[in-house]
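A reminder from the course coordinator: this example appears on the midterm review sheet, so study it carefully.

Given structure:
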């Protein structure tokens, strides 16, 4: 969509030209909703962010009017409607779960009473469990389990910033928090209450010497919450970190591997 991209970029830098870009913005959001565009995608092994698509989402909030809508006894007053055609798309959404217009779910996705925001993409066979939130522009892979109460933060601005990305086959335990564009690589297992931000130390403690990562969890890593001491003028205090305590087996299928990880390493789901 080269013409749409040019118009959106011009309007984002100069809001007086928003009227010229209105049709392009609506077409971009519609393409996101159909899954024809996405905010970020993996190209030759690296995640690439399509900044102009995020700009279109930001402009859409300026263009969309506030409207009243209802779902059974529930009333809403918002700029963005909920997604339509879930039955045709093969997506199951359990009341009062919500998928917002401009998000895309592949067939086989199940959304319990959780929330999927605009710009997000959820892969086939993924479960979004009760009170889990998939923030704006987050990219969730196929056959991922997002457990109850997980908070996946939205990353809309700046448009160049990477969204939270969870690759295929990952398992995210209850009440985990993933924000600030972190990358959870394929097949990783995060135990309950694990917090990963762009600055959280993710420390591999399985070898003779610790190996530290920031902003990402390596593929097939089994991770639990941890802490480590840090000296301050007022004394020494423990600060949170995440600990890699093992590796999920690549030789077994996804379900067996997950059960093994939870049992052998004592990870709570």
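Designed residues:
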């Amino acid at each position: 969509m080269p013409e749409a991209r040019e118009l959106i970029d011009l309007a984002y830098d100069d809001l007086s030209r928003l009227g010229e870009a209105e049709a392009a913005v609506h077409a971009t959001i519609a393409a996101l909703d159909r899954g024809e565009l996405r905010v970020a995608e993996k190209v030759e092994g690296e995640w690439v962010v399509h900044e102009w698509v995020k700009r279109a989402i930001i402009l859409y909030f300026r263009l969309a009017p506030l409207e009243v809508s209802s779902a059974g006894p529930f009333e809403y007053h918002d700029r963005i409607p909920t997604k339509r055609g879930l039955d045709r798309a093969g997506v199951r959404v359990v009341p009062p779960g919500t998928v917002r217009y401009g998000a895309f779910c592949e067939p086989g996705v199940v959304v319990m009473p959780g929330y999927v925001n605009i710009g997000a993409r959820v892969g086939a066979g993924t479960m979004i469990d009760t009170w889990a939130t998939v923030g704006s522009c987050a990219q969730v892979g196929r056959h991922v389990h997002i457990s109850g109460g997980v908070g996946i933060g939205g990353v809309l601005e700046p448009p160049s910033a990477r969204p939270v990305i969870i690759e295929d086959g990952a398992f995210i335990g209850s009440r985990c928090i993933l924000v600030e564009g972190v990358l959870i690589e394929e097949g990783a297992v995060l135990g309950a209450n694990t917090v990963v931000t762009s600055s959280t130390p993710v420390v591999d403690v399985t070898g003779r010497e610790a190996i530290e990562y920031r902003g990402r969890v390596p593929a097939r890593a089994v991770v639990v919450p941890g802490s480590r001491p840090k000296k301050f003028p007022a004394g020494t205090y423990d600060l949170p970190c995440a600990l890699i305590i093992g590796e999920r087996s690549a030789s077994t299928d996804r379900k067996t591997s997950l059960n093994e990880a939870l049992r052998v390493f004592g990870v709570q789901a």
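The chain has a mean pLDDT of 93. The first strand starts at residue 40 and ends at 43.
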